[in-house]
Write a structure and sequence with these properties.
This protein is an alpha/beta fold and about 250 residues long. It has a domain of about 120 residues: P-loop containing nucleotide triphosphate hydrolases (Rossmann fold), CATH 3.40.50.300. It contains nine helices and ten strands. The strands form two sheets. A six-stranded mixed β-sheet has the order 6-7-8-3-9-10, sandwiched between helices. The longest helix has 17 residues. It is globular, with a radius of gyration of 18 Å. Bound molecules: adenosine-5'-triphosphate (ATP). It is found in: Cell inner membrane. Its main location: membrane. It is a peripheral membrane protein.
Length: about 250
């Protein structure tokens, strides 16, 4: 049984744009799956449908044995709490400390009044510090988030997502705002949590050189359809042109 199974999912936005057109994917526990494709091919929409930020127009998604596309209310919140997400723009609260930002990842199981007052349990604080250590930022716990570099902020976002005890982490172009060397650093931490904590990762990326270094499997979208799935090493020049178009040229990120 795969950890995640998207069956023939389609998404049409209210303005009529058909962003996904009948996608089938299975993701096994422990994979580091990278999604590639031109801008507008549907990568973000796919991730947002998986964690139900967007509802699918048709098809169904089964995650961890539950059909999340059919869940509502508390059961949907429970299922979603096992799906972490990080974004291109990090989405931290800039004026709060790094530790407070990480603790906010525990919101799903913290009573609203306690979270408003910043009253997190000692256990959650310990856990947040341990996750900051995993992403190499324990010494920055009491620094304001907006004093950190972009790469460090993305690592805080990873620690925040880990507070949910996710089974799967969705990363929507996590390095698109970062320079090349910082991009590798963030990707290495994602690889670390995949390999050492066993968190399955689905990550949208633009640069094939990163894909080749970090992905255990790749899928490619083109105009909302799945056009490739396989090993990163099997993406030869012909596949590259199928995915990105005849005129595309590969650019490396070192
Ligand atoms: N909220 C929305 N309302 C209407 N159309 C949308 C919305 N979000 C995305 N789209 C459209 O859906 C299509 C797929 O967009 P999506 O953002 O999923 O692609 P993407 O591959 O992630 O692109 P990028 O790499 O630029 O982020 C595009 O045509 C886009 O313009």
């Amino acid at each position: 049984m795969p950890l995640l199974h998207a069956e023939h999912i389609s998404k049409t936005y209210p303005n009529g744009t058909q962003a996904l057109k009948g996608i089938d994917i299975e993701v096994e526990q422990g994979e580091f799956l990278v999604v590639i494709g031109l801008s507008g091919s549907g990568k973000s929409t796919l991730l947002r449908c998986i964690n139900q930020l967007h509802t699918v127009s048709s098809g169904r998604i089964v995650f961890d044995d539950a059909e999340i596309t059919a869940l509502k209310g508390r059961r949907l919140r429970q299922a979603r709490s096992r799906i972490g997400m990080i974004f291109q723009q990090f989405n931290l609260i800039p004026r709060k400390t790094v530790l407070t930002n990480v603790l906010s990842g525990a919101l799903a199981r913290t009573p609203v009044i306690k979270s408003l007052l910043g009253m997190y349990s000692a256990e959650d604080k310990q856990k947040a510090l341990a996750y900051l250590d995993i992403v190499g930022l324990a010494q920055k716990a009491y620094v304001r988030a907006d004093n950190l570099s972009g790469g460090q902020q993305q690592r805080v976002a990873i620690a925040r997502a880990l507070m949910q005890d996710p089974k799967i982490l969705l990363a929507d172009e996590p390095v698109a705002s970062l320079d090349p060397s910082t991009s590798h650093s963030v990707m290495k931490y994602l690889q670390k949590i995949n390999q050492e904590l066993g968190v399955t990762v689905i990550c949208n990326l633009h640069f094939l050189s990163l894909v080749r270094t970090y992905a255990t499997r790749v899928i490619a979208l083109k105009e909302g359809q799945l056009v490739y799935q396989g090993a990163p090493s099997d993406i030869d020049e012909q596949w590259f042109k199928t995915i990105y178009g005849e005129d595309a040229v590969e650019v490396s990120i070192n």
